[in-house]
Model the fold of this input.
Amino acid sequence: MKHVFRWIIAGLILLVVVLVGNTWRFQPEEVKIPSDKLPEISAADSLKMVERFSRALQFPTISRDDARRDTAAFRAFLTFLSTRFPGVFSTLHVQSVNRWSLILHWPGAEASQKPLLFLAHYDVVPVDSATLGAWRQPPFSGAIADGFIWGRGAIDDKAGTMITLEALEYLIGRGFRPQRSIYVAIGHDEEIGGLEGARHMARLFQEQGLEFELVLDEGGTILKDGIAGINRPVAMVGIAEKGYVTLCLTARGTPGHSSMPPRHTAIGRLAAAIQRLENHPLPAAITGPTRAFFDAVGRHMPFLPRLIIANRWLFSPLLIRQLEKQPATNALVRTTSAVTVIHGGVKSNILPAKATALVNFRIRPGESVEQVIEHVRKVIDDPSIHIDIYGKLAINPSPVSPIDGEAFRRVSHSIRRIFPGTLVAPYTVLGATDSRYYYSVSRAVYRFLPLQFRNDDLPRIHGINERISTRNLINGVRFIIDLIQQFN
Done:
């Protein structure tokens, strides 16, 4: 018995040594940042950039299908770009795609070098008329007040469009000539899927045989509040994005008078199916981009969380249980499902002939639309419930872009140069962006909008009082300038 006890003690000591040793080695990595001169923008130029951005927000380029699109607003916005950025539109080759999207091409001196591609879109989501009274400034005013520029699209994504064009105009005005070619693809329908804009432009690039050194889109940003346990800003750089599918569940019944009902009506069977789905989610796991995220941020955490993250071989179940408690972190580790729409019944005393529910899934890298459908079929376990894909979008998760290559390294360098003290963390973008279409022309596709926000700013995206600070705008321009100069 004593020998057994000694072995247990020895095993525990060895375990502690392994845990502490792994934690000790799990330290922040030393990063060498280029010391080249940082781009500076004068007060006069900054003022002009702010004024142009304000004007850009005044065009109600609301994303709708072709039949309902306000073509006058889209046409006026494109005219505004061509007149306010004379250097860009006289120096770069300009191609219109499906009337409203644009490809801009600045040929480089070295044709052998892979080009850069910057993505953006200028369409915006509608503003709910019921919320107009809650806006501190009218949503299409582009008001400059309290150090901010206000309006729908200020973050998503006229910021991306404008900072890219401002950076190019700045460089052209100073006689810069790129060694490698630079492309800009500006979409007009990202908010409704990008089918006519980004998808078509990506196909054109593929037909031309182009392969890009870097593709940069929106999708991540800098959280000024940082993350729990880290008292510094964190730049969230998307290296992948979740897939997307909405499934329509349909239960049928025999209509009739409710005085003689069957044991289970169509609505009852549908409700049972929904309950089973919510009680049996797809499995959680810390893999791929989420593993890379924890590798990046965990090194900067206090000892106890650092110990847990450094020893995921032992503590993964504990870590996952903690992450599952909050919707935002739960979404990082699993394919999520949300019942978003339900229909059934016409009158209180009539049995329903049909009941339907829409369930939206955001699919984590490593799983697929087919696996989601199979999971739903298995969990519901009711052949009378029909399962169909709803709508046009059924998208598998994107491939995962590398974090050990030159493109990611230079994006990280520009982040640290323009936003000193910022920690760079790769992660999975939970929503859908235009960048998913561009993996046919590059492996190095990253989602990062170089702006800083506090956590309480994030609901402004697609919400009320969308805005960015004037300083934020100028730093975004400086980032694009610096990144282009790094690659040249």
The radius of gyration is 26 Å.
